[in-house]
Amino acid sequence: MNEKIKRIGIFTSGGDAPGMNAAIRAVTRAANFYDLHVYGIYGGYEGLIDGDIRRLETSDVANIIQRGGTILKTSRSERFLTVEGRRTAYENLLAQDIDAMVAIGGDGTFRGALQFYKETQFPVVGLPGTIDNDLYGTDFTIGFYTAVDTAVEAVDKIRDTADSHNRLFFIEVMGRHSGYIALYTAVASGASAVLIPEYDTSFDELVENINRSLKRKKLFGLVIVAEGNKLGSTVEIAEKLQEKIKDYDIRVSIFGHIQRGGSPCAYDRMLASRLGYATINALLEGKFNCMAGIINDVVVYTPFEQTVQLKKNPEQELIKMAEILGL
Ligand code: F6P
Question: Ligand 1 centroid to 176 CA: how many Å?
């Protein structure tokens, strides 16, 4: 047991994700069990720089496991990208006698934590909290399955109207650099096609795919588009396609931030609880500068260097499967 760690800071950073609260709860409760004091850092790295740090007791994390968003608030901090910002953050941690931190967030959050460690040797353990599921070192990230559930539920509704009007819908889901939400949503909602950043689909291939559907007398269609796909903006793709395909009346629906909110699904609550608990075990064992994740149902710790350098991509077989099942 690492006797040096007595006070732990915890914050959420980057885009919020359903299940972040469940992770805050798990970290706080596991820490309190080992008589460690937990301090909530409000507003991510911004709050760290501003010194917005307050004690979190077990009772403060009651009744939050089911809540979306993050009770600690979040931000995408520009100031933490500067040496000066990081220096102020470090001084605030020393002033509060905080010995280690738990960072819940995505790629950008861990990039910041790694840089901070290089400059200060301050121990940080990361928890993967992002709806994008694009982090190397874990099969799934906290929030991903809830976002997919939200998107699938909405696509099911679009399907009703698409079917009634014999229309082709282009549906944009989140993922600036990641196609996981799009791919899983496409498979789970039975879409005809999916466009993701990790896979090149040419415009001609898309036209061919839709024409094939028409030949099969498919009366309506659903195409799921990841925000960051390589063909361009969803509206532009749809307009361009409408010029080529006259038999379908095309419409566009952009889901946006609705995918980030809502109560976390049971899977995300489990994942957040397991990883929150694992984080405290890691700190007590003297493990830090790494992200806790679950691979093949086993908790693993991946150094931040790898988490930020290596990209996790959807399996080729899954992409092929989505294509085949969508035909
Ligand atoms: O948090 C991840 C994410 O939701 C991406 O899928 C999306 O591209 C981005 O954040 C949007 O960020 P913001 O809310 O800052 O516009």
Answer: 7
